[in-house]
Design a protein that fits this description.
The complex is a heterodimer of chains A (about 230) and B (about 300). By secondary structure, chain A is an alpha/beta fold. Helices cover about 35% and strands about 25% of the residues of chain A. Classes of the chains: A alpha/beta (about 230), B alpha+beta (about 300).
Chain lengths: ~230, ~300
């Protein structure tokens, strides 16, 4: 469902972000992308959500070639993917319910269907009792659950999580991980999660891709702690 | 359903930037005020110019000994061949007397005694020209024709006035276009503010796959509403003002010969044109801003 072949990305200002990336992810997989700051994780995400196009090589998600994606077709492509951010990106003036509803409204989902789906996903993320709360009244974990609910409301085939636990304490992080595993299992969404949190990577063992200086330096199907610290091994 | 949402968002934008909304709406109002005045003025100038040009003619007096069929035919041909001559009409000695009597009204009756063989008035050709401006040159050329006693004309001053008003009208159009461009810029700036206050919403909409048209719609509506707000005052001034002016002047301007255009349906057209320009200016201003923003990134 996700294919990257010989992908390179050089920004207009001359910065090389990715070199010759080859990566295949199957439908239903849960994959960590880890690596130090500046290793190209953000660029990888931008290539996947259609924000950037590769300088060289092929990026294909759900059968769509991102490099050939016209500007006007980007919105339709994005309906196939959900994105969760470290800083949640919720609208303060809208309630939990409205924040999720907003995403469905924006893509023209009929009112009744949208309302039903919002209740469904809020139940799934465990926020049924917080529907009328505003973001200011929620904990970090609840905020991220809201953001996840919004990202999966449209039943995306691919869920991209950009440091979803970056602002959360270990307990909340564990809760979010359990939720993501549940979504992966119950909604059948493929999950690509970028993270710094080695503890989580060790605790919830998944396929792990290690990026360093724009190269994939390891791709461990069994996951777990990467013993060779990239900084010392390279 | 979506339209209600777009309108709600547009109204929220208007309220959020009340000061900017008012200032761009007033810029539109200024521009449209000029447009309104110039529409009404130019339609009236056109009508008056037409009727004045129509009424201006050259009066060509013919010696009595040339007032017979053959020399008259010769004079007629020569006048007709002059460039710029529209129409040549013969007025006999009796016709001229009738006109003289008519100009004096009741007192004119005393000229009745002239009628007959002793009529001292000359027969004449009445010459109309295609344009008022070349009337002097044409008169000059007619005066060289043999058998012509006197050439006279009037109304060139009026024509000069019309030309001047026409010139003012051109200057007015330039002003109107300039002011409209200023209005477009102000509206587009207001919309830019509106965009920046909703940048997070737009980012989220883009992330979840909202189409550009959906994102753009509230802003475009906001722009159109600003334009329409700006058109209210000019429409009132132009319509009520003109109806009042027309009544006050009794339908004529300065003199009886300058007949003003009736207010109906003129004021309706003017109101329609003003509202139309307001919508277009608002649409362009907002569209430019949003499209520029949405093109900025994928």
């Amino acid at each position: 469902m996700l294919l990257m072949r010989n992908v390179s990305k050089t920004y207009k200002n001359g910065v090389n972000a990715l070199y010759n990336i080859n990566l295949t992810i199957e439908q239903g997989e849960f994959v960590y992308i880890i690596g130090p700051t500046g290793s190209g994780k953000s660029t990888l995400i931008k290539l996947l959500d259609g924000e950037e196009i590769p300088t060289n090589g092929l990026v294909e998600v759900v059968g769509i070639n991102i490099g050939k994606l016209r500007h006007s077709k980007v919105p339709m492509y994005r309906r196939n993917i959900g994105v969760v951010f470290q800083d949640y990106k919720l609208l303060e003036r809208k309630t939990v319910f409205e924040n999720v509803y907003f995403a469905l409204e924006a893509i023209g989902t009929p009112k009744a269907k949208a309302r039903q789906r919002v209740r469904e996903v809020l139940h799934l993320v465990g926020l049924s009792d917080k529907m009328k709360s505003y973001p200011a009244e929620l904990s970090g974990g609840q905020l991220q659950r809201t953001a996840i609910a919004r990202a999966i409301a449209n039943q995306p085939k691919l869920l991209i999580c950009d440091e979803p636990t970056g602002n959360l304490d270990p307990d909340m992080s564990t809760g979010i991980m359990l939720l993501l595993e549940k979504i992966n299992r119950e909604e059948g969404a493929t999950i690509v999660m970028v993270t710094h949190d080695i503890t989580l990577v060790n605790q919830f063992k998944k396929r792990t891709v290690l990026l360093h200086d724009g190269h994939i330096v390891a791709d461990l199907a069994e996951g777990g702690y990467i013993k060779n610290e990239p900084d010392t091994s390279l | 359903m979506n339209l209600i949402r777009h309108f709600r968002e547009a109204f929220m934008g208007l309220i959020r930037h009340g000061a900017m909304t008012v200032s761009s709406a007033s810029a539109v109002a200024y521009a449209l005020l000029f447009v309104g005045i110039f529409i009404i003025m130019s339609i009236n100038i056109e009508q008056i110019t037409f009727s004045v040009e129509e009424s201006v003619q050259i009066h060509v007096k013919i010696y009595d000994n040339f007032n017979s069929e053959e020399p008259l035919g010769l004079i007629y041909t020569q006048i007709s061949e002059i460039e710029g001559v529209l129409d040549v009409e013969y007025s006999s000695k009796d016709d001229e007397l009738d006109k003289l009597i008519a100009t004096y009204g009741e007192d004119g009756k005393i000229f009745e005694s002239y009628r007959g063989v002793g009529n001292p008035l000359r027969a004449a050709y009445l010459v109309k020209t295609k344009e008022g401006s070349n009337i002097a040159a044409i008169s000059q050329r007619i005066s060289y024709i043999i058998g012509i006693e006197k050439v006279s004309y009037g109304g060139t001053g009026t024509i000069q006035l019309m030309k001047m008003l026409d010139y003012i009208r051109t200057v007015g159009y330039i002003l109107v276009i300039g002011l409209s461009i200023v209005a477009v810029f102000l509206i587009s700036n207001t919309i830019k503010l509106s965009i920046s206050s909703r940048i997070k919403e737009i980012a989220i909409m883009r992330t979840v796959g909202a189409k550009n048209g959906f994102i753009r719609m509230p802003f475009v509506i906001e722009g159109i509403l600003i334009g329409l707000m700006g058109s209210i005052l000019p429409i009132l001034v132009a319509t009520v003002g003109y109806i009042y002016l027309y009544e006050a002047l009794g339908g004529v301007f300065l003199a009886q010969m300058f007949v003003l255009q009736s207010p109906y349906p003129l004021v309706y057209y003017t109101a329609g044109i003003l509202a139309g320009i307001a919508v277009v200016v608002g649409l362009i201003g907002s569209f430019v801003s949003v499209t520029r923003y949405l093109r900025w990134q994928r």
